C-alpha cells in the first residue's frame, strides 16, 4: 500500500501567530506604520521554499542574497546569474547538506564566500538586547537582513534545528516575523522575540555549539568585478591546499634567489586544472534577444569598471614579471597555458563565442561540439576613452545556430584607430598573465615569509603588497584572498571556531 505522505502541519498557536490570520495581518499593519517592515518587501519578493528537507540554510541564504541584489559572479542556468541552493556548494558538498543539513559556521562561510558582508553571533557571544537592536535595525531597512538559527521545539513545532530569515518586527508586542522557508510545513508566522532568543540559545548537537543569528548586507561594491574563485570543479580542494599550504614550503628552498625563481617554483608545480579555480566574470548575451550590438548604459558601466580593474592589474610590477616569465624560452611551467597574445584574434574570438554558447545553452564543461563562424570584434568607448569589446560570432552545433555576444574588457596600451589591433588578441580574452597576477596578489601575506634572501623577500613583498594598489584592484584582490582563506578554513574544519576571524 502506497504511503500517503505528509501535507503541511498545523501551526501551534500560541506561541506563534499565523501571518495570514486576522491577528497576524493586524500585527503586520501596525508594524508597517511603525516603520519596522521595510526589509519585508525585498525578502517577500524573493521568498522561496527550500527544495530539500535539509536545505533550510541554503534556501535562507539564497533568498537573502537575491533580495540584496548581490551578483553571484557565476551562472545559474543559461546565461543568467542568480543565487540558487544548487550553487551554494563551496563550503560543504551538496550531497552532505542534503543528508545532514549545514552548520551555522559553514553557512556563515557560504555567505562570506558568495560576496556578502556578514556579522555572525552565537547566543553566548551576544545578548537578547543586542539581538533585538539588530532585528529592529534590519527590519527598518532594506539593505540588511537577519537569518536566525533556532530549535523548533521552543515553538512546540515538529523538527529540530532550522534556519529562516526574519522578515519584520513589531516593537509594541516585541514579536518577530519568521519567513519560514519550509513552507510545505509551516506558513510565515510571528513569534515573541524572547521565545525566539530561547530557541536560538540551544545547543546544536552536531557542532556542540550554541545556535545564533547572522546579519547579512551588501558590500559597497560587487565583490567580483572581474575575477572570482570557483568551487564548482572538484579540483578546488587540491588547488586551495597547494596555494595556502604547499607554496610557502616550496619558497623556503635555497634555490630561490630572484623573482624568476619565485615564479618558477610556484607555477611549475601548480595543479594543471588551476584554470577551473579562478575565473573571469564576463557578460554573455544572445544577439537576437538584445536587438543588435548596441550596449545599454548598464552594460557599458559594468564593462568600464571591469576594464579599469584589468588595466590596474596590467600596470602592476608583478604583472610585468609574470609576463616576462611566461614568455621566456626557459620557462619550465608547462602546466600554464600560453598567453593569448600568441593566437590570432579570429581564433580567440571563435573560442570566446563557443564558451559563451556553452553558457547560454545551460551546459557546463567543454565547448567541444560548438563551431563558431563569422566572428567579429567591435570596440566601444565608454566613460571617456575607456574601451569595451563585444566579441560576436555565429555558433553552430547540433541544435542549430545562434548569434552570441560576449562582452569583455579591451585593455590596450596603444589601441589602433578602431580601438583594436586586428593582428593582436591582447586584451580581448582572459589571459594567463593577468589571471596569474591576480591569483598571486591574492595569496596570504605569510606565503612569502620563508624566502631566505632578505633582499628578495623585500622585493617580492613590495610587488605583492595591497597597500599601494588602486582602490578597485585592492578590493578585488582582498575579496579573492578572503575567498581563498574561507575555503581553506572550511576544508580544515575550522569554520566553527571563530566566526569573527579576519579573512585577510
TrEMBL record:
<dbReference type="InterPro" id="IPR040409">
    <property type="entry name" value="PCS-like"/>
</dbReference>
<protein>
    <recommendedName>
        <fullName>glutathione gamma-glutamylcysteinyltransferase</fullName>
        <ecNumber>2.3.2.15</ecNumber>
    </recommendedName>
</protein>
<dbReference type="GO" id="GO:0098849">
    <property type="term" value="P:cellular detoxification of cadmium ion"/>
</dbReference>
<keyword id="KW-0479">Metal-binding</keyword>
<dbReference type="GO" id="GO:0046872">
    <property type="term" value="F:metal ion binding"/>
</dbReference>
<dbReference type="InterPro" id="IPR038156">
    <property type="entry name" value="PCS_N_sf"/>
</dbReference>
<dbReference type="GO" id="GO:0046938">
    <property type="term" value="P:phytochelatin biosynthetic process"/>
</dbReference>
<feature type="domain" description="Peptidase C83">
    <location>
        <begin position="1"/>
        <end position="221"/>
    </location>
</feature>
<dbReference type="InterPro" id="IPR038765">
    <property type="entry name" value="Papain-like_cys_pep_sf"/>
</dbReference>
<dbReference type="Pfam" id="PF09328">
    <property type="entry name" value="Phytochelatin_C"/>
</dbReference>
<dbReference type="InterPro" id="IPR015407">
    <property type="entry name" value="Phytochelatin_synthase_C"/>
</dbReference>
<dbReference type="GO" id="GO:0016756">
    <property type="term" value="F:glutathione gamma-glutamylcysteinyltransferase activity"/>
</dbReference>
<dbReference type="InterPro" id="IPR007719">
    <property type="entry name" value="PCS_N"/>
</dbReference>
<dbReference type="GO" id="GO:0010273">
    <property type="term" value="P:detoxification of copper ion"/>
</dbReference>
<keyword id="KW-0104">Cadmium</keyword>
<dbReference type="Pfam" id="PF05023">
    <property type="entry name" value="Phytochelatin"/>
</dbReference>
<keyword id="KW-0012">Acyltransferase</keyword>
<keyword id="KW-0808">Transferase</keyword>
Amino acid at each position: 500500500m502506497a504511503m500517503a505522505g505528509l501535507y503541511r502541519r498545523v501551526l501551534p498557536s500560541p506561541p506563534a501567530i499565523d501571518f495570514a490570520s486576522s491577528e497576524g495581518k493586524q500585527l503586520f499593519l501596525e508594524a508597517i506604520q511603525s516603520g519596522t517592515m521595510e526589509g519585508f518587501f525585498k525578502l517577500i519578493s524573493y521568498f522561496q521554499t527550500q527544495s530539500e528537507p535539509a536545505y533550510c540554510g541554503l534556501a535562507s541564504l539564497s533568498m537573502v542574497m537575491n533580495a540584496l541584489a548581490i551578483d553571484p559572479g557565476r551562472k545559474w542556468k543559461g546565461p543568467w546569474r542568480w543565487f540558487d541552493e544548487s550553487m551554494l556548494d563551496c563550503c560543504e558538498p551538496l550531497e552532505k547538506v542534503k543528508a545532514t543539513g549545514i552548520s551555522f559556521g559553514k553557512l556563515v562561510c557560504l555567505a562570506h564566500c558568495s560576496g556578502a558582508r556578514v556579522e555572525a553571533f552565537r547566543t553566548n557571544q551576544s545578548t537578547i538586547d543586542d539581538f533585538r537592536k539588530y532585528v529592529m535595525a534590519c527590519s527598518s531597512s532594506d539593505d540588511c537582513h537577519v537569518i536566525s538559527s533556532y530549535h523548533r521545539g521552543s515553538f512546540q513545532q515538529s523538527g529540530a534545528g532550522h534556519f529562516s530569515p526574519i522578515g519584520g518586527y513589531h516593537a509594541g508586542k516585541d514579536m518577530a516575523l519568521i519567513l519560514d522557508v519550509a513552507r510545505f510545513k509551516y506558513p510565515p508566522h510571528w513569534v515573541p522575540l524572547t521565545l525566539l532568543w530561547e530557541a536560538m540559545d540551544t545547543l546544536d548537537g552536531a557542532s556542540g555549539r550554541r545556535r545564533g543569528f547572522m546579519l547579512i548586507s551588501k558590500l559597497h561594491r560587487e565583490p567580483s568585478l572581474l575575477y572570482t574563485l570557483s568551487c564548482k570543479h572538484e579540483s578546488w580542494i587540491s588547488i586551495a591546499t597547494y596555494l595556502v599550504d604547499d607554496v610557502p614550503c616550496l619558497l623556503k628552498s635555497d634555490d630561490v634567489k630572484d623573482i624568476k625563481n619565485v615564479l618558477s617554483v610556484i607555477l611549475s608545480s601548480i595543479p594543471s586544472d588551476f584554470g577551473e579555480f579562478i575565473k573571469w566574470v564576463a557578460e554573455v548575451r544572445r544577439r537576437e534577444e538584445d536587438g543588435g550590438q548596441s550596449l545599454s548604459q548598464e552594460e557599458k558601466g559594468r564593462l568600464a569598471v571591469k576594464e579599469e580593474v584589468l588595466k590596474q592589474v596590467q600596470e602592476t610590477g608583478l604583472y610585468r614579471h609574470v609576463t616576462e616569465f611566461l614568455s621566456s624560452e626557459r620557462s619550465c611551467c608547462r602546466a600554464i597555458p600560453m598567453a593569448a597574445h600568441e593566437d590570432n584574434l579570429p581564433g580567440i574570438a571563435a573560442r570566446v563565442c563557443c564558451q559563451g554558447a556553452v553558457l547560454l545553452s545551460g551546459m557546463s564543461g567543454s565547448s567541444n561540439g560548438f563551431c563558431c563562424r563569422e566572428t567579429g570584434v567591435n570596440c566601444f568607448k565608454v566613460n571617456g576613452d575607456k574601451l569595451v569589446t563585444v566579441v560576436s560570432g555565429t555558433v553552430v552545433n547540433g541544435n542549430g545556430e545562434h548569434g552570441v555576444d560576449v562582452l569583455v574588457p579591451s585593455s590596450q596600451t596603444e589601441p589602433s584607430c578602431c580601438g583594436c589591433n586586428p593582428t593582436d588578441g591582447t586584451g580581448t580574452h582572459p589571459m594567463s598573465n593577468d589571471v596569474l597576477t591576480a591569483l598571486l596578489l591574492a595569496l596570504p601575506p605569510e606565503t612569502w615569509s620563508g624566502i631566505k634572501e632578505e633582499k628578495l623577500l623585500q622585493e617580492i613583498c613590495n610587488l605583492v603588497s595591497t597597500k599601494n594598489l588602486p582602490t578597485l584592484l585592492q578590493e578585488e584582490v582582498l575579496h579573492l584572498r578572503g575567498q581563498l582563506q574561507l575555503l581553506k578554513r572550511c576544508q580544515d574544519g575550522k569554520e566553527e571556531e571563530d566566526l569573527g576571524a579576519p579573512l585577510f
